[in-house]
Amino acid sequence: SLRQLAMYSYLISGNEKDKIVSESRLLFLEENFKNKNSLYSTRINQEEIDLLIKDIEDYDNLIKNGEWVNLPCEYNSYGKNTECPYCALQKRITKD
To answer: How many CB atoms lie within 10 A of CB 90?
Structure first.
């Protein structure tokens, strides 16, 4: 995903100051060997990295001020419309 590539670019540029990520790639390995594996290439720009950093800061603040637990769960098991296992566990715990 783009977010995953943005995180890798951010980590590489933050860890090694002289490194610049010019292109990011994901290789999707397919279970069926008859089909070719899929390679996705893109460029991650500074705006995408800045959005990632902002999200990290927002999540950090939500955890520190205790509001994290009030966020809605957006669990989606690949569109299978199943219940989040952690929400189900929380329901069982608070029910007792």
So the answer is: 13
Under 8 Å between Cβ of 75 and 89? no
C-alpha radius of gyration, the chain, whole number:
19
Please list the residues that pair with 25 across neighbouring strands: 41
Q: How is residue 71 annotated by DSSP?
A: S
pTM of the model: 0.67
Mutual orientation of helices 2-15 and 46-64 as an angle, nearest 10°? Answer: 90
pLDDT for 17-45, tens place per residue? 777 788 888 887 766 656 666 778 889 99
Measure the CA–CA gap between 10 and 7, rounded to whole angstroms: 5
Per-residue pLDDT, 20: 79
